[in-house]
Amino acid sequence: LIRCPSVTPEEGGAIILLEDRLSAAGFTTRRIERGGISNLYARWGEAEPVLGFCGHTDVVPPGDLEAWNHPPFAAVREGGMLHGRGSADMKSGVAAFVAAAVEMVHTTPPEGSIAIAIAGDEEGDALDGTRAILDWMGANDEQMNHCIVGEPTSHSEIGDRLKIGRRGSLTARLTSYGVQGHSAYPERARNPLPALVRLLDRLAVRELDNGSEYFGASTLAITSVDTGNTAANVIPAEARATVNIRFNDHHSGQSLSEWIEEEADTAAADFGVGLAARFQISGESFVTEPGPFTELVSAAVEATTGRRPALSTSGGTSDARFMKDHCGVVELGLVGDTIHQVNERVPVADIETLKAIYTRVLAEYFATPPD
After folding, report:
1. Cβ count near 83 (within 10 Å)
2. Do 44 and 83 touch, CB atoms closer than 8 A?
3. Are 91 and 60 in contact (CB under 8 A)?
4. What mean pLDDT value characterizes the chain?
5. In Å, how far are 53, 169, 329 from 93, measured between CA atoms?
6. Does the global pTM surpass 0.70?
7. Per-residue pLDDT tens for 291-332?
């Protein structure tokens, strides 16, 4: 998989490889193409319950090739490590759950079904990957009862974290409009910056919340401020800023958007300029309540590694934000300390351990299906 140069939106041979392997193991496979993105849905069995695995084979660009110790798509093993773009995020996770699923249907075919959803644009806009798969599933009466997303969610040791949810993510792009002029004659201009600065201060100083049962406190970060103005004696006509909020279940993307718009209207009125906000909500916060399914996965991790995973909702967004509308979902994968970096790599032993965890989850799931 790592040797497939599947930089979003390129398929790079990764989907074809998985389709071939799963078809040979008796899975019924379906290529789902949308918006120039190749995705794969595979299923073994027809009965319920259906345990699903979800992942992606697209990767971020490798960056400076000269900075890599090994070519990023060579998949070199050295010193017990597997090197390559996607080794951590998340081709090794995909390989682990595909290997576990193939092994099970060959050795102990379950009384139920295994479904595997592989997206091709998780690292991009995420519009035509898992969303396209779920749309196809809805149109074809395909349903998972539970799903494991194989993202690299462990913190420092394999299996020390089990993600049961994620914070929501909202990006606000703010533009303040004024009238350009000479800085020596400010009365002839209308400076857009004071209003924008006031707005940013109002947003930054507010304590959004103190956290909730499953989430830490929501956070707001000012990530850019720009006028494009290189002249010290010119008042610009326009100023822009970007704010990103990672929010818990005290908020929604809509409620935060409305708050920002209210603050923008106040700042605009105070300074007599225009202020506009554009919003992108990458996902709402969600949580899979601890219960039989999370306990089954946690017990499988503990039985395999000797450590009990902490239940977590930290980190950024993932395709679990789409799966949660379909079925109960958790995330369990490798340690992600080199994701998106030059010289991305993972211990080979961790991949083998992850495969062993997935194998145990499969066995326990079909032996005693959770509610």
Report:
1. 22
2. no
3. no
4. 97
5. 10, 24, 16
6. yes
7. 999 999 999 999 999 999 999 999 888 999 999 999 999 999
The per-residue pLDDT for range 124-157, each reduced to its tens digit, is 989 999 999 999 999 999 999 999 999 999 999 9
Tokens of 337: 């300390």
Rounded CA separation 29/42 (Å): 4
Specify whether the CB–CB gap between 318 and 122 falls below 8 A.
Answer: yes
Q: Which residue has the tokens 């794969």?
A: 40
Q: Among 157, 191, 162, 156, which residue's Cα sits nearest to residue 328?
A: 162
- Distance between CA atoms of 54 and 152, rounded to whole angstroms? 12
Structure tokens at 161: 């974290």
Q: Which residues have a catalytic role annotated?
A: 58, 122
